[in-house]
Amino acid sequence: MKLNDSLKARYLCLQILIGVFKKKKTVSQTLEEQYLCMHSYEESDIARAKRISDFIFVYLQGLDNCINLYSEKKLKLEVRNILRIVVAESFFDEAPDHAIVHSAVQLSKLSKSTKYYSGLVNAISRRILVYVQGDNLILVSVLEEKLRTYLSNYYPNEVIKRIEKLMTKKAPLDINIKNFEEINCWKEKLNAKKLPSGILRLQNPKGLSSLPGFKEGKWWVQGASSSIPIKILGKISGVEVLDLFSAPGGKAMQLISAGAKVTCLDFSLKRLELLKKNLIRMNMKAKIINSDIRKFESRIKYDIITIDAPCSSSGTIIKNKDLPHLLPVERILNLTTIQDESLDLARKYVKEDGVILYCTCSLFPVEGEERVSEFLVKNQDWMQKAICPKEHGLEAEWVDSKGGLRLRPDHLFDLGGMDGFYAAILVKNN
Ligand SMILES: C[S@@+](CC[C@H](N)C(=O)[O-])C[C@H]1O[C@@H](n2cnc3c(N)ncnc32)[C@H](O)[C@@H]1O
Q1: Which pLDDT tens digit goes with each residue over 252-261?
Q2: Edge-to-edge strand order for the sheet containing 173-177?
Q3: φ, ψ (nearest 5 deg) of residue 41
Q4: Using a 6 Å cutoff on CB, does residue 33 contact ligand 1?
Q5: What is the CATH number of domain 5-133?
Q6: What is the value of pTM for the model shown?
Q7: CATH of 221-428, one of 3.40.50.150, 3.30.70.20, 3.40.50.720, 3.40.47.10
Q8: FRET pair for 191, CA 20 to 30 Å: which of 38, 145, 230, 370?
Q9: Does residue 250's CB lie within 6 angstroms of at least one atom of ligand 1?
Q10: Ligand 1 centroid – CA 273 distance (Å)
Q11: Rounded distance, CA 405 to CA 371, Å?
């Protein structure tokens, strides 16, 4: 099947929607698969497909309400996805009406599951266009229902509403400077904002790899919140660190630039390749181990073990707008086991006076606070060391009553928010 140019972005967008809503695959997974297909997508096709699909993920309820006005609620998902693109495109008002309808009909003809619906798609699309152009479409950003209900057990409605508001905006892009003394120089060169966590936030970045300092290894991409856990470790020059779940290396690079001797461990060869590339670009060195943590054994003990555990990634919803539709709540149960196993492993291989740093980019206490509490109940010779916000230039409300770091997407709201993150420092209590 050969796609003409006007259909490419829309076809890719449709594959993204099928991936998320039907196969429960992330946007990145679908994009990777599509690269392997025969269609040669331009950068602009990918950007447009992502822009439309992100819009659909954020405003899904309003878009579906519009479609439901002209169809049965039980409309086949594959047909509904095509119509979701039509509503989004009508709202953007960037393409001529006939092109929007024509491409929707073409899209429906491309697949066995929708080809008999092309007449229906044609008729509904025309009616949608009239409806949207009459300014009748009301769009409100509302989190997917199950996720919203789950989060409301832990966060006030006001917080959830602020997160929903931030989801309508483009996620910010943050970078970490290798040599912190140069931060003001890079702030000027990159026209960036300096955040309280000592990270630079880029304004409208384009072509990351062509920005000054990228090729020279002066900085790497790392979100404001994911950089804070390593900062709270304080002075770590010369210490031996085992960085569990290390790839693609954001935290490892921070540890190395703070002078630590780092061993990186991850089971994904593909992600370790990315880590190696990052280290080469940054002119940094680390020992790299490709292993599942469940099979890992060590003859030596470490001063610090950092655990950036696999999790629901629910903290990253401003960045990954597909995430609320990928069953984040259902996925938790499979993940708490590996989170507990990683804490057990760290306990075994950390020195007597050593430190375990446990963190996740999750908003769910069951992946953060509760894992740490369970660990402390099982291991009464361990305790949580409280993080002092003042000492690290953090806002007082970012630290919870037990001294753990609890970051939310709506923190730094006026600057565009940040990822949700949890971190705790654990030490022996002797
Ligand atoms: C949250 S990411 C780590 C991000 C990284 N620490 C950073 O700062 O760039 C989680 C990583 O855990 C790895 N992982 C998941 N399960 C694992 C396991 N059982 N053993 C080893 N690595 C695993 C994944 O391949 C992934 O790279």
Answers
A1: 999 999 999 9
A2: 192-194, 200-202, 173-177, 219-221
A3: -85, 140
A4: no
A5: 1.10.940.10
A6: 0.93
A7: 3.40.50.150
A8: 230
A9: yes
A10: 13
A11: 14
